[in-house]
C-alpha cells in the first residue's frame, strides 16, 4: 500500500495537518528494491546561522524536544526481497506530531535503539546491538505548529525476532522517547537506515 505523507503546519495561520493513523499490520506481500528517499515540499526557511525561522517573519523557532512529539507507525512495506520472495528489508514511515504548547522545529535524523523482548529469564528488555545509518537526503529544518506533522522513514533488516519496544532520540536531545515496537524486526548487528525529517524512502 502506498501512502503520500506531507509535512504540514509551517506558515503562520496555516491549519495544522492531521497525521496518518498507525498500522498494526506487518510487511505486505509485495515490494520493490530500496528506493531513493523522496523530498517532501519544504515548509520552513533556515537562517544562515542554522536557526529555524518562521517563513517570511524572521522569528526564531526553538528546536523540538522528544517530549514535544508523538510518533506513529504507518505504511509498512517490503523494500527488498530474496529470490524466493522472502523480505530482506522492510520500511516503515513515521508520522511525527507536535503535541507541545508552541511551535518547534525538527531537523536531521533520529537515532533508534531497539530492545529485545524479555522472557521469563530476564527482568527487563535489553538493548540490541545495532546502529542507525543516515540515509541520503537534505538536512532541512521543518517547523511544526501545535498539532502539525512531519514524516520520515526507517528501513529495517527483516528477521523473525520482534522488538519489545524502541527508543528514539532527536539530534541535540539526549532524552529518549519510548515507542511501542512489537512488529519491528530486531536483528542483532543489523543497521537501521533512517531518512531525514521531511523525506520518505
UniProtKB/TrEMBL annotation:
This is DUF4232 domain-containing protein. Residues 17-33 have a biased composition (Low complexity). Residues 17-61 are annotated as: Disordered. It comes from Actinokineospora auranticolor. It comes from the Bacteria. The lineage of its organism: Bacteria, Bacillati, Actinomycetota, Actinomycetes, Pseudonocardiales.
